[in-house]
Amino acid sequence: MQPSSHRPDPSGDRSGFEQDTGSAGGTTSEPAPDEAVSHEAGPDGARGAGADTTGAEQHQDVDWRSLPDPVRERLAELAAGALGGLPAADVPKRVRPVARFAPAKRASSGASALLIGLRESARFRTAVVEWTRAHRPDALDPAAGVGSDPVAAAAAALLLGQPDAAARLRDVAQRAEDASVRSERDAALARVRKLEAELAEAREELAAARADVERAREERTDQLAKLRGRLRKQGQELREARDAAEQARTDAEQATGARGGEARRLADELARERERADAERTRAERAVADADAARRSAQEARAADEVRLRLLLDTLGGAAEGLRREFALGDSGTGAAPADTVGGVVGPASGSERIADADTLGRLLRLPAVHVVVDGYNVTKTGYPDLPLAEQRSRLVGQLGALQARVGAEVTVVFDGAGVTSVPAANPRGVRVLFSEPGVLADDVIRDLVAAEPHGRPVIVATSDQEIVTAVRRSGAHAVPSDVLLTRLGRT
Q1: pLDDT tens-digit readout, 229-241
Q2: Which domains does the chain have, with CATH numbers?
Q3: Which of 147, 250, 401, 417 is 20 to 30 A from 300, comparing alpha carbons?
């Protein structure tokens, strides 16, 4: 908005502006903070020296630092609305940064600077009044509705320098104080009503609690009466029992006095019978101990006889084998039969059969005195290679123990001794666990075991090593693959 023709031109001669405002002759473009508005318009739009003098006196009477908050907000709103349409010369330096704010934020963010500008710069106030009169005449004209709003009327009176500005400000302050008092009163009444409701609720709870206490007291009184009646009854029964016990004691004393001699005699006889029973028990215990000693002696003698008999049979067998070798008689049952001399036919291959399924293995395991030799790691690494070696050995030995308990065969399992730090001290009954010595392969131990067996004894070797299979079959043993043995162990 361009300045009014009544307003001094900031770029021209400033003496007219200084004479209108009543300045003491300063050279600055802004009036002093407490100088009056020299060309302030009255309510009817006229300007004159009388109105300027009244405005100056009014601005001196009003304390801008203690304005009511609603009036401060109204003044900041009017100043913020006019700030965007004023030339920079009419805007104080401290207010100019507010002009860079967004229009919607000028009144809230720059309220303090705007109010200081209105308070200290009469030129800025005049510019705001003129802009407001041109763009928002209703904000300064009582006929347009300002008089119906005390806050708007007080702000307009303050800007126009009207004589009743201080009274209007006091009215706004009084209204604000009355509203605050009413608000506090309403809040206090609300708190009182809330406290009254809580008090009524507490009284109801107290009444309910008292009723519960009274009811509990009555129940305890009834229980106490019942307990007292029961105690009286039990006391009477106790007295009757004491009387009966006293009578029984008297009768017993009388009976004891009459039968004391007989009781002593019976006690003596009982003591003698007890002594005889103790003597008999001692003799029985001695007899049982002698019987146990005799049984142990008989068992030891039988064991010794069995050992001597086994040695004798071994000696006789060795002697018979020596005589057979000495006389070059050959193995019994292996001599040439008449049918073997017939030419033109091919005889069966030497060596024993290779077991291909679990059923055939089961039939061989039922042979008398059969010996099962197991290549330990060959079987475990076929069945459960993911387990550690110690767990492989433990699992295989446990399964072989179950097999031995079922079929009664002699079972020997051989492991390579390399890398074994501790040899298990206990194994399942009937299973012989062997570890090859350092530098000796388990394969060689298996060959030696098969070779050590007497001719004619059925021997089964469980392995998938083809070298061991070939060697043991030449020695007359039956070879069974590891997976077939594992299948048979899974059925056990």
Answers
A1: 888 888 888 888 8
A2: 15-163 (no CATH), 358-491 (3.40.50)
A3: 401
